[in-house]
C-alpha cells in the first residue's frame, strides 16, 4: 500500500475539488484551502460542456490570420488590453508556435488523451445516481454559416479520425432535424455523439465536494499568502494562520501564476477572461451545446437557463468588466436562435487560466517534489479535471502516472 500523506489542495474549483476527491479516495488526509466559496471561481459560470476528444487546441495552422482579424474587429470575440500587453506578448508568441502543424497535432493528441475519458471518470467519482442527475450525454454540435469545407476542415477530420473520435458531418437539413430552433443561416455542422454537458456547473462542483466531504476532506476558508517548502513537508502561510502538510497541490486557477512566481517559477498562463449571459426559462430551445465556430461562442441549455458563453479578453484578472460584452453575447444569441425572446438576462465574467498550447500544467515543482501544480485548463476545465486529478493521485502515491505526463510538464 502507498504511503499516506497530509495533503493541502489550494483552490476549490472543479480542478482542486476533483484532486481532493481522488486523493481522499486513496486514504490521504486532505484539506481544501479556498479563499472564497468552493466552486465560485471560473468553474461557476462556464459553458458546462464536456468533450470526449472533440476539442482542438485553440491555436491551429493559420491561426495568425484569424487572430489578426479578431484583434482588429471591435465587435469580434477577442480583445487584448494594452495594460496586459507586456505579460501577454511572450504568451502570444508561444501560442502562434503551437499553430504550426506538428506542434498542433502533438497538442491535440495530448488533449485527447486527457479529455476523452472524462465522462467515465466523473461517473466513477460521483457514483451513478449523481452522474445521471448532473450529466446530459446528448452530444455536442458545431455549426457554420458557410457551405464549403476548407483545407483545415479536412485536416481536422483526419486528425479526429486517427484518434478514434466519433463525429458526423451534417448538412443544413440534418442540422434542423437535430436542433429545430437554429437559424436557417447555418448551412453545415458536425455532431459529436460522445460529448455532452452538465446541467449546472456549480452543481457539478457541489456534487464532487459532497463526495469529497463524505470521504473526510475538510475545507479551510483562508487565502494562501505564501508557500514555504521545508525539509519535512510544506507550510502554507494563510490569512488564518499557518497550515503544515506533507504535500501541496496548487490548483488555484489563474492565481496559480502568482503562487508559482513566489516559488521561483514563471508559468506561461494568460488571464483569458470570458463572459456569459444566462436567460432563465429559455433552455428548451436547444438540447445540447451548440458552438458557432466562426464567432467562437457556445449556447448551452442549463438548469439556470439558456447560457451563451464566449469572448477571449486578455486583461488583468481584477480589471473592471467590459459592459459591452453582454450586448455582444445577446446579439450572438439572437443570430443563432432567432425565435428566442430575451427578457431577463444575468451576466458574469470569469478568468480562464490559459496556456499557449491549450494543455494544462500537471506535475511537481522541479526543486520541491512535495509541491505539485494542477492548473492551466483554459477553455476545458470540466473535461480535463478528472484525468488531472487521477495523475495527481498517482504522483502523490509515488506510482508511475497512468498516462505519460510529458506534455503537461511545467513550462
Ligand atoms: C465564459 C467561460 C466559458 C467556459 N466554458 C467551459 C466549458 O463549456 N467547458 C469547460 O470544460 N470549461 C469551460 N470553461 C473553462 C473552465 O471554466 C475552467 O477551465 C475551469 O473552471 C478552471 O477551473 P480551476 O479549478 O482551475 O479554477 P477556478 O474555478 O477559478 O478555481 C480556483 C479557485 O482557487 C481559489 N484561489 C485562488 N487563489 C487562492 C489563494 N491564494 N488561496 C486560496 N484560494 C485561492 C479561487 O477562489 C477559486 O475558487 C469556460 C470558462 C469561461 C470563462
What can you see in these coordinates?
There is one protein chain. With 411 residues, the chain is of the alpha/beta class. The protein has two domains: 6-43 and 203-268 and 358-408, FAD/NAD(P)-binding domain (3-Layer(bba) Sandwich); 61-113 and 135-196 and 270-354, 2-Layer Sandwich (D-Amino Acid Oxidase, Chain A, domain 2), CATH 3.30.9. The chain contains twelve helices and 21 strands. Strand 16 and strand 17 (297-302) form a beta hairpin. Helix 1 runs parallel beside helix 9 and helix 1 runs parallel beside helix 12 (381-397). It is globular, with a radius of gyration of 21 Å. The protein starts with 5 loop residues before the first strand and ends in a 14-residue tail after the last helix. The model has no long low-confidence stretch (mean pLDDT 96). Flavin-adenine dinucleotide (FAD) is lined by residues 10-16, 33-36, 40-43, 46-49, 223-224, 251-253, 255, 274-276, 309, 350, 352-353, 375, 377-383.
Strand content: 25-35%
Please state the structural category. Answer: alpha/beta
Sheet of most strands: 9 strands, mixed
* End-to-end distance: 32 Å
CATH class of the largest domain: Alpha Beta
Morphology? globular
Bound molecules: flavin-adenine dinucleotide
Oligomer: single chain
In the CATH hierarchy, the architecture of the largest domain is 2-Layer Sandwich
Domain module tally? 2
Percent helix, as a range, is 25-40%
CATH fold field value of the largest domain: D-Amino Acid Oxidase, Chain A, domain 2
Amino acid at each position: 500500500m502507498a504511503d499516506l500523506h497530509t495533503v493541502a489542495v489550494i483552490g476549490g474549483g472543479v480542478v482542486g475539488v476533483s484532486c481532493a476527491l481522488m486523493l481522499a479516495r486513496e486514504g490521504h488526509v486532505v484539506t481544501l484551502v479556498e479563499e472564497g466559496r468552493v466552486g465560485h471561481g471560473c468553474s461557476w459560470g462556464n459553458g458546462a460542456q464536456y468533450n470526449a476528444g472533440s476539442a482542438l487546441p485553440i491555436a491551429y495552422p493559420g491561426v495568425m490570420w484569424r487572430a489578426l482579424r479578431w484583434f482588429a474587429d471591435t465587435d469580434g470575440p477577442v480583445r487584448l488590453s494594452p495594460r496586459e500587453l507586456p505579460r501577454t506578448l511572450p504568451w502570444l508568441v508561444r501560442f502562434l508556435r503551437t499553430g504550426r502543424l506538428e506542434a498542433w497535432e502533438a497538442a491535440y493528441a495530448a488533449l485527447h488523451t486527457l479529455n476523452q475519458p472524462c465522462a467515465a471518470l466523473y461517473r466513477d467519482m460521483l457514483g451513478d445516481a449523481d452522474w445521471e442527475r448532473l450529466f446530459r450525454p446528448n452530444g455536442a454540435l458545431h455549426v457554420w454559416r458557410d457551405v464549403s469545407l476548407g483545407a483545415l476542415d479536412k485536416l481536422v477530420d483526419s486528425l479526429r479520425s486517427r484518434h478514434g473520435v466519433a463525429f458526423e458531418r451534417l448538412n443544413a437539413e440534418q442540422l434542423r432535424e437535430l436542433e429545430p430552433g437554429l437559424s436557417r443561416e447555418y448551412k453545415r455542422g458536425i455532431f459529436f455523439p460522445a460529448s455532452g454537458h452538465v446541467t449546472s456547473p456549480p452543481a457539478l462542483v457541489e456534487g464532487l465536494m459532497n463526495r469529497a466531504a463524505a470521504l473526510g476532506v475538510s475545507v479551510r476558508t483562508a487565502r494562501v499568502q505564501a508557500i514555504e517548502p521545508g525539509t519535512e513537508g510544506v507550510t502554507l502561510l494563510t490569512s488564518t494562520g499557518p497550515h503544515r502538510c506533507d504535500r501541496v497541490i496548487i490548483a488555484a486557477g489563474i492565481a496559480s501564476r502568482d503562487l508559482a512566481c513566489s516559488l521561483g517559477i514563471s508559468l506561461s498562463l494568460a488571464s483569458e477572461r470570458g463572459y456569459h449571459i444566462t436567460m432563465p426559462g429559455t433552455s428548451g430551445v436547444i438540447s445540447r451545446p451548440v458552438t458557432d465556430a466562426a464567432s467562437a461562442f457556445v449556447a448551452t441549455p442549463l438548469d439556470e437557463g439558456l447560457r451563451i458563453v464566449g469572448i477571449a479578453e486578455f486583461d488583468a484578472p481584477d480589471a473592471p468588466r467590459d459592459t459591452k460584452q453582454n450586448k455582444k453575447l445577446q446579439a450572438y444569441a439572437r443570430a443563432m436562435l432567432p425565435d428566442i425572446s430575451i427578457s431577463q438576462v444575468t451576466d458574469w465574467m470569469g478568468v480562464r487560466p490559459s496556456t499557449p498550447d491549450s494543455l494544462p500544467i500537471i506535475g511537481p515543482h522541479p526543486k520541491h517534489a512535495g509541491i505539485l501544480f494542477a492548473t492551466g485548463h483554459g477553455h476545458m476545465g470540466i473535461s480535463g479535471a478528472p484525468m488531472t486529478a487521477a495523475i495527481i493521485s498517482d504522483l502523490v502515491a509515488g506510482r508511475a502516472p497512468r498516462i505519460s505526463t510529458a506534455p503537461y510538464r511545467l513550462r
